[in-house]
Amino acid sequence: MLLPRCDLALDSSFSQGAQRTQKAQSGDDGEKGEKGEEGKHGKVGPMGPKGMKGELGEVGDQGNLGKIGPIGGKGDKGQKGLPGASGGKGRAGTVCDCGRYRKVVGQLDISVARLKTSMKFVKNVIAGIKETEEKFYYIVQEEKSYRDSLTHCRIRGGMLAMPKDERCNQVIAKYVSDSGFFRVFIGVNDLEREGQYVFTDNTPLQNYSNWKEGEPSDPYGHEDCVEMLSSGHWNDTQCHLTMYFVCEFVKKK
Ligand SMILES: [Ca+2]
Ligand SMILES: [Ca+2]
């Protein structure tokens, strides 16, 4: 608000007089106050920025051995190796002693034939002894004379085989041929009376015999014992000859 000019001058002079008469003096400064108590804790500040990545640590100790793994699959077959170096040259041959070699080859042939016979024998042993409902038959593979053959069978509780009918004869004949043998003594002879053939139990040949064609023939009076051929046929022959033979054993009921 604007005042008139005269009022302004009057007011100015009054103000100067008052300063001269009523000027008050200010007091002494007070003593310094005591130190205030410690202020309260400030609020928790905000999270600082992420620090820098640390340095690489030292290498640790070696760990224990791990468990054994499962067995792996079979590997593929490797490639064929390279051919080996050729051998050295052989020594010069000698002149062929052909006659001598032919003899050796001949002996080998005989040995092979014997081996084949042995093989048949082994098959026979595996097959076991032959039998009918009443009897067992067994070829004794020891070459013996007729009388020794008789004794051999008897001391074992049997008899030299007596084929008294076609069926028994066939069983023994098959046994002989399957075994690869050519002839065996059987229990037939005319030792007591020439031409009067009997079985070894002294029974005469009544209903059955199986002579080979032309047998028995005893041109010199020396053939008093009987062999069976692998064909099953009979032939009178000399008793002192040695050959395999067939024993028979009656089955115990
Ligand atoms: Ca005779
Ligand atoms: Ca004869």
From TrEMBL:
<dbReference type="InterPro" id="IPR001304">
    <property type="entry name" value="C-type_lectin-like"/>
</dbReference>
<keyword id="KW-0465">Mannose-binding</keyword>
<protein>
    <submittedName>
        <fullName>Collectin-10 isoform X2</fullName>
    </submittedName>
</protein>
<keyword id="KW-0430">Lectin</keyword>
<dbReference type="Pfam" id="PF00059">
    <property type="entry name" value="Lectin_C"/>
</dbReference>
<dbReference type="InterPro" id="IPR051663">
    <property type="entry name" value="CLec_Tetranectin-domain"/>
</dbReference>
<dbReference type="GO" id="GO:0005581">
    <property type="term" value="C:collagen trimer"/>
</dbReference>
<dbReference type="InterPro" id="IPR016187">
    <property type="entry name" value="CTDL_fold"/>
</dbReference>
<keyword id="KW-0732">Signal</keyword>
<feature type="domain" description="C-type lectin">
    <location>
        <begin position="132"/>
        <end position="248"/>
    </location>
</feature>
<dbReference type="GO" id="GO:0008083">
    <property type="term" value="F:growth factor activity"/>
</dbReference>
<feature type="compositionally biased region" description="Basic and acidic residues">
    <location>
        <begin position="29"/>
        <end position="41"/>
    </location>
</feature>
<dbReference type="GO" id="GO:0005537">
    <property type="term" value="F:D-mannose binding"/>
</dbReference>
<dbReference type="GO" id="GO:0005615">
    <property type="term" value="C:extracellular space"/>
</dbReference>
<feature type="compositionally biased region" description="Polar residues">
    <location>
        <begin position="12"/>
        <end position="25"/>
    </location>
</feature>
<keyword id="KW-0106">Calcium</keyword>
<dbReference type="InterPro" id="IPR016186">
    <property type="entry name" value="C-type_lectin-like/link_sf"/>
</dbReference>
<keyword id="KW-1015">Disulfide bond</keyword>
<dbReference type="InterPro" id="IPR033990">
    <property type="entry name" value="Collectin_CTLD"/>
</dbReference>
<keyword id="KW-0176">Collagen</keyword>
<dbReference type="InterPro" id="IPR018378">
    <property type="entry name" value="C-type_lectin_CS"/>
</dbReference>
<dbReference type="GO" id="GO:0001503">
    <property type="term" value="P:ossification"/>
</dbReference>
<keyword id="KW-0325">Glycoprotein</keyword>
<comment type="similarity">
    <text>Belongs to the COLEC10/COLEC11 family.</text>
</comment>
<feature type="region of interest" description="Disordered">
    <location>
        <begin position="1"/>
        <end position="91"/>
    </location>
</feature>
<keyword id="KW-0964">Secreted</keyword>
<dbReference type="InterPro" id="IPR008160">
    <property type="entry name" value="Collagen"/>
</dbReference>
<dbReference type="Pfam" id="PF01391">
    <property type="entry name" value="Collagen"/>
</dbReference>
